[in-house]
Each structure stands twice: as C-alpha cells, then as structure tokens.
Amino acid sequence: MTIAWQLWLQLFRRTPLLVVLANLLRLGAAYFAVRWLRGDQELVFIAATLFAVATWMWHTGQGYNLRGVCVPESFLLPNFRRRLLEYGVIDAAMWVLLPLAVAAIGGASYLFLMACCLLVIAGAGLLMGSNPRTGAYIWPFFVVLGWMPSFLSTFFKEALHSPLTPWLLLAIVALLLRFSIAPLLRIEDRETEASPLESTSLGRTQTRTLPGEPRRLGMFGKRITRLYEQLAERALQRALVAYQRHPNFQRRMILVRRLLLPNDNPEAIALRIVLVGGIVCFYFIAIMHRRHFNPVIMGAYAIVLSISRFPQLNVGMVRMRPNMADLYLTLAPETRAEYQQTMSDALLILVPISLLTALVYTVFGIVLVHAPNPWQMLFVATIVSLATSLAALAVHLIGPEGTTGRTIVNLVVVFGTMAVYWGGYWLVSTVGYVIGGGLLVLVALGFGFGVWFAAQREYVSRAPRFDAPIG
Questions:
Q1: Residue 391 in contact with residue 447, Cβ under 8 Å?
Q2: Of 310, 322, 319, which Cα lies nearest the Cα of 412?
Q3: Could you tell me where the DSSP H helices lie in 70-137?
Q4: How many Å apart are CA 402 and CA 381, to the nearest integer?
Q5: Within 13 Å of residue 33, how many CA atoms lie on the same side as its CB?
Q6: Cβ(381)–Cβ(299) below 8 Å
Q7: Tens digits of residue pLDDT in 98-145
Q8: Are 213 and 71 contacting, i.e. CB atoms less than 8 angstroms apart?
Q9: Phi-psi region for residue 402, left (φ > 0), alpha (ψ -120 to 50) or beta?
Q10: How far apart are CA 161 and CA 157, in angstroms?
Q11: Torsions phi, psi of 196, nearest 5?
Q12: Residues near 344 by Cβ (< 8 Å), separated by ≥ 6?
C-alpha cells in the first residue's frame, strides 16, 4: 500500500484538477447509487454515466502519470514491474470490483458485461493518457459512429443480448493495454532531444512531454521528424552562409530565428500546414454531418488551432534556459536589455506564421463546407487571428510558468478568441464592413497591439535567466 500511496501522490501532483474532478464525479455517482438502492430506479442511468466519466478521467490521469514513472531509470528499482502490477490490481478493485459489488447488491443484471464495459473505459483512458499519439485514433472512430445514430442504437441493442459481446470487449481491453502499457514497459535508448520549440504538430503532444521521458514515435512519426530535421538543417545552413557573406542586422535576426525556431522555415511551415490540414479536412467533413451545423464556426476553429502553438512557447523557453547562455555569449550584447529585445523580436515572427496558418485552415473550411459568406469569414478571421496571436504571444512570453497558471491563461485566450470572433462576425453582418470592420479593427487590434507592447516592455526590462527549471 505504501507504493500505491506514493503513486497516488504522484498522480495528484501532476494532474490535481483531473484527480479532484474524477473523485467529485465518483462521489456524485455514489450519491445517486445510494438513492437507487433505496428504490429510485430512474437514477441508475445518472449514477452509471457519472461513474463512467469519472473512470475515464481518472485513468487518463493514470496514463499520464505512468509516462513519467516508467522511465528507464525506474526499472533499476527492485521489483518495479511487480509493484506496478500490484498497483493495477488495487486500481481495478477500486474502479471495477467495488461498483460491481454495489450493482450486485441492487440486483442489477448483466454484471459480467458491466465489468467488461468498465474495463474498456479504463483502458481507453489509459491509452489517451499514456500514449496520446495512438489515443488520437479513438476520436475518429466515435466521429464516424456519430454519423449513424440509428444503426448505433440497433447495434447496441443486439450486442446487449449476445453472449459473445463480453468476450469481444475483453479482446478490446487487451488491445488497449497492448498499445498503452506495453510501450511504457520497454527499455529503449533515448533519441537525441529535440528543440522544445520545434512545433512539428505531430499530434500536438510535444507540449505535454515530461522531463526525462523518452520520445515515443511510430514509424510515420520518425520519418516525418527526420524530414523536419533535414529541412531545419538546410535552412540553418542557408542562413549561416548568407550571414557570412553579408553580415547585417536582418540576416543576423534570421540566423537567431533559425536557432530558436528550427521548424519555422518556409519549407517546414508548408509541410506542417499539409499535415495538419489533412486532419482539419477530416474534422470539417465529419462535423458537416451534424444536423445543426453552422459553417461560420470554421473560422473560429481555424484561429484556435493556429494559436495552439503559443502555450508551447512558454514551456519551451523555460526548458531552453541553460542552452540560451551559449546564445547570449555568441551574440555578445552590450546590455541585457539588448539581448531581451533580440529574443522578443525573433519570436515576433510567430505572429505572421499564426496568421498564415489560420487563413489557410479557414480557406480549407470554406471550400469543404461551401460557406455562404466566405469573404466575410476571411475578413473577420484575418483581424481576429492577428489580434489574438499578438495577445497569445504576449501572455505566454511573460505569463506564469506553472502548469495551473499556464492552463488558466490558455483557457482565457481560447474562450476570448471565440467570443471576439463571434462578436466580430455579428458586428460586420449587422452594420457592414466599413463601420463594423472599423470597430472590430479598433477594438481587437488595439487590444492586441497594446498587450504586446506592454508585454515586450516587461520582457525587455527583465534580466535574462539561464538557470535550469526546477523539477
């Protein structure tokens, strides 16, 4: 129990919000289950739904926790694998056997099927938390099922009475554990660490990589990563040769950007747009099948997707501090403020890149869903994307470094972006491009540039830090 308690503490330290929400949902499920045992039969569905969501959230956190626990050094501990197995048995008793006992007391039927369903939910949570790359494959499956609600209802009714359904679910559980737990138990040599600001967009999982955790990429991911590295090396060599021929301020800044942002050269940006654009196209096609679908929302999704890069900036700059000392000595600035100004000017290139990607994704959405007002969507998306990119760069450049604070800031930016986009679209639709667009430019861009200039002054006034992040 001591080992289990320590792993629970690790889980709470890494995902406190997830742990609290899962346990609150479990308490809510227990409350409705008690009322169900007292004879209120209508509450059984609410209790089962709350407990299923709690199980999924808890095991998603468990998977994320195991990513940091199962590092090569941990396997040197005595009986490490056996302790993990004991921890899994305790977890299964809490989240499978205990609810089954409650269901048995209440006289519920299909207990074996219920146990298998709980194991599937727990396995899916482990997969999404421990291996986000393969966990992302689950969502298209649910999207496709959402296209056929009548077929899905009939299928579930038939599967409920089939004696083979529990065994099929157990096979799915074994498959989920194979993709989630098995990669964590393999001891592999670590690959060369990539830049924290690489932004390859391979599943957007780079921002969640834990310190010391090996990079777990599949065959496709490794090939794409190798292609990104080749493009980054080629761009760096071009910038270096150009600076050696004619050393000026502009080419010096390009060289700094190639060092800080290796995958933000033109070729890598095009490759990233193609890769993410394929996923965006699939998502747009999927949501077109919803009954109450509004094509205007494509612009909001595109902007939110384009600014999802900026939280990585906050994490990456913290992780790169020890390496930035070499860059400081190479640049040899006369003052610390000059160095900070160089860093902020170099990172400002992320704003036009974000604007470009937002417009490209918006065009994808317009073409796929045949939006009725394409020019209005592009007009509003251009203004809002530029303003929110400036604001996101500002807040993440000087914002909180802790996980909780960074998450809160990111949520504020995302929901603020959605609100400004819908408000701007309504304003342009109501009073026209001249008045509505002028007001949108005045408010949105005025706020974005104001926040950026204030953040830049704050960043330049700070002393450079080269200490390694704690933990």
A1: yes
A2: 310
A3: 80-92, 98-105, 111-130, 132-135
A4: 31
A5: 23
A6: yes
A7: 999 988 888 888 888 888 989 999 988 888 888 766 656 666 666 666
A8: yes
A9: beta
A10: 7
A11: -60, -15
A12: 397, 456, 459, 460
Q: Which residue has the tokens 């394409």?
A: 374
DSSP string for residues in 23-83: HHHHHHHHHHHHHHHTT-GGGHHHHHHHHHHHHHHHHHHHHHHHHHH-SGGGGGSTTHHHH
**Is 299 within 8 Å of 178 (Cβ atoms)?**
no
CA 448 to CA 439: how far, in whole Å? 14
Considering only CA atoms, give the Rg of the chain.
25
Enter the tokens of residue 180: 């989630």
Contact of 16 with 59, CB cutoff 8 Å? no
Please name the residue that has the structure tokens 């071009």: 238
Q: What band does 37 get if pLDDT is binned at 50, 70 and 90?
A: confident
Tokens of 453: 């200039």
Q: If you write DSSP's letter for every residue of 366-406 in order, what string do you get? A: HHHHT-S-HHHHHHHHHHHHHHHHHHHHHHHHHS--SHHHH
Q: What is the mean pLDDT of residues 302-325?
A: 86
Q: Is residue 456 helix, strand or coil?
A: helix
Q: Which tokens in the block code for residue 175?
A: 């498959």
User: CA 370, CA 58: separation in Å to the nearest integer?
Assistant: 41
In angstroms, the CA 448 to CA 391 distance is 5
Q: What are the tokens at 387?
A: 């303003």
Angle of the 2-14 helix axis to the 16-37 helix axis, nearest 10: 110
Residue 435, Cβ neighbours under 10 Å: how many? 12
